[in-house]
Amino acid sequence: MNGALPGGDTLFEHAACALVVTGADGVILGANATACTWLGYGEEELVGKVRMRDLLPVGARLFYHTHCQPILEVQGSVAEIQVNLVNRGKERLPVLINIARRQADGASFDHWALFKAADRHAYERELLAARKAAEAALEARREAETRLQAANARLSAADRRKDEFLATLSHELRNPLAPMRSALDVLTFKLGNSAEPRLIQAFDRQLRHLTRLVDDLMEVSRITQGRMQLSRATVELTALVRSAAHDLAPMMAAARHTLHVHVADGPVLVDGDATRLAQVVLNLLANAAKYTPDGGTIELHLACVPGMAEIRVRDNGIGIPTAALATVFDMFSQLEPALDRAKGGLGIGLALVRGIVELHGGTVGAASEGPGRGSEFTVRLPLAMGAACPAAPEQDDTPPASVRILVVDDNQDAAETLTMALAMFGCETRTVHTAGAALDIVAAFRPDVALLDIGLPDMNGYELARRLRQAPGGTAMKLIAITGWGQQKDREQAQAAGFDHHMTKPIELGKLRDLLATEFPGR
Amino acid sequence: MSVQIRNNVHVAGNGSATMVFAHGFGCDQTMWRFLAPAFAERFRTISFDLVGSGRSDLSAYDRDKYGTLHGYADDLLEILDAFATGPVVFVGHSVSTMIGLLATIKAPERFVAQVMVGPSPCYINDGDYVGGFSREDIGELLETMDANYLGWSSSLAPAIMGAPGRPELRAELTDSFCRNDPEIAKHFARVTFLSDHRADLPHSTVPALILQCSDDLVAPLEVGRYLHRHLPNSTLHVIDNVGHCPHMSAPTESSRVIEGFLARTLR
């Protein structure tokens, strides 16, 4: 052996690890100098007196018994057990322990090698702390998610109870309405004109209103509870849309709204429930009428775009704030304080529209350029299986046909040219030059439209308009004022006199034709 | 799922009666290798791994079910239904002694005897009761487990050995013994060392042998004496042994004591 190398004893005594031998009972039988130094005991204090497990803190001791000992019994060795040792100064020494079990002379001995592991220990503690922090964060998130789920479940349950409540409420409210209706009918019949008609009418109007609210509520409940059944059939929309426009004419007239109806050439066929789809159009029109100040303009369009029927209702009313566009179809959105509540209502009309449209596999959207700038609602419904949009007509200028028009103008030339033009459009015309002649002819001719010059020799056009309204069929007649002045004052005066439209001389025939096409679509 | 796969059940031996061996905390059925063969000549022997330990089906580990020892007791009864014949002698080590105790309360008719190796009904000191540990000690145990599972764990072992595609090799790795899934082991440690079954003791009437080591840190002598006082039909035998695993370190002596007990009890 090279003399520069330490002898075996030195190597053992001062090895870079602590070496300890114990007997089967764990009592230390020998320890090198490194072990004594680390542990702070003299060898004589350890040997035969101390057991290695006594140097372990309680938790590590437990681990030793439940883990290391069985492994030693089965495998004869354990490796890299990481524990703290407690030395004489009560300091904790992080160490890695390897133990090998050896047999000698029928007895068994455990050879322990202990390596300092302070750095590793610190590093692993950091890893552990990081893992624990991550686990705690994960746990916190799980708990938050659980709470969120519970909150959602509670909300869903509340929502379900609300739906159930509304269904029951609407049903219960409906029950007393039928006998009230019958009673009112009986009263009307019995009392006839002897009763105060205005009271009866008010009662009747309010009862209808209440009935409609309750019906809407019930139908929305049916949709939210998935109980609405559609009676599906192939539905032709052009007729349906026109019919809906017709039904709402009184409401439009009451608010002095002008309703323009633009309907594509039929047939536009969808697969759906005609009653429900009519309800969609009626609700959209009623909504437009309601949220447009009196004297507004409302447009109803039906178009056929590839694969889809498109119904649009546009008004120039109060509009919708951008923020409210997203929720306008939600139930009770009317209760949002941001919206004008002056009009009242439950805000379920549009919810019903969306519900019905979605049941038909369609979509509905709302657009508005903002408050005071009108609104536009667009419903798209898939065309019926196998249906397609009708081919576009060769020319767009199909003239309105068989509209009866009375022209009243004391300017004979003007009257004649106008009459010729109207005849060219296919209208049936009568021309007179005085108000008196007009009133004479109106009962027999029953015109759909009367074009009145305002400056007549025997009576001004406003007065004539009022009288024509009194004549048979006068309320349905479209009255168009023709004046030389197109000022706002003139329009207002014409409107006040009961004119439906106002045109300025010289009349643009194209405009007149468009107006007639709108008022009498398809004729 | 089959009980066999769930609990990695192994049946050996021949006999009209059955001996079932349940291992203690931290290890697996391998710990019975020095003791069980001695009984295989006269008994049908069943050994198994508790769910979450050894080579049981780890996916069956349900923290709720195994949040108390009752979950394990139910498993034990299912194992007996599937594999036991004739009268059953239960042999449990450490925590499994309480699992067996709960099973004997649930189905006393299934058992003729219970052998408790190093039992403890409660590890934590409580007033006059000496369990041997404080709550802080158990916290320190969990910390020590953490420190030792960080470096190596059962999940790393196959990869380290470089034979993930050859599970039969893993089966031969003796050093997989006592290496359990760290998270499960920690949960099991909590359930084990925080359990308190002192109140159950009077309800188990199946004859019991309490096999106590003379020097056992985990289950001190006082605990053995306490058990003997409160278990109605029990025998206490203190075996001269240092440590918690006499069935491993003193198997001959252990089996002799068990044989004697069985001879007296089953005669």
What are its keywords?
heterodimer, A: 523 residues, alpha/beta, Beta-Lactamase, Helix Hairpins, five-stranded antiparallel β-sheet, five-stranded mixed β-sheet, 21% strand, B: 267 residues, seven-stranded mixed β-sheet, globular
Describe the structure.
Chain B: Keywords: Hydrolase. The complex is a heterodimer of chains A (523) and B (267). Chain A is of the alpha/beta class. Chain A folds into four domains: 8-117, 2-Layer Sandwich (Beta-Lactamase), CATH 3.30.450; 122-225, Helix Hairpins, CATH 1.10.287; 233-382, Heat Shock Protein 90; 404-519, Rossmann fold. Helices cover 46% and strands 21% of the residues of chain A. In chain A, the strands form four sheets. Chain A has a five-stranded antiparallel β-sheet, with helices on both faces. Chain B has helices at residues 3-7, 69-83, 95-106, 135-151, 157-161, 167-172, 182-193, 221-230, 246-249, 251-265; strands spanning 10-12, 18-22, 44-48, 88-93, 111-117, 208-215, 234-242. Chain B has a seven-stranded mixed β-sheet with strand order 1-3-2-4-5-6-7, with helices on both faces. The termini of chain B are far apart. With 267 residues, chain B is of the alpha/beta class. The relative contact order of chain B is 0.15. In chain B, 38% of the residues lie in helices and 16% in strands. Chain B is built from ten helices and seven strands. The model of chain B is unreliable at 152-174 (pLDDT under 50). The chains are: A alpha/beta (523), B alpha/beta (267). Chains A and B meet through helix 4, strand 3 and helix 5 of A and helix 4 of B.
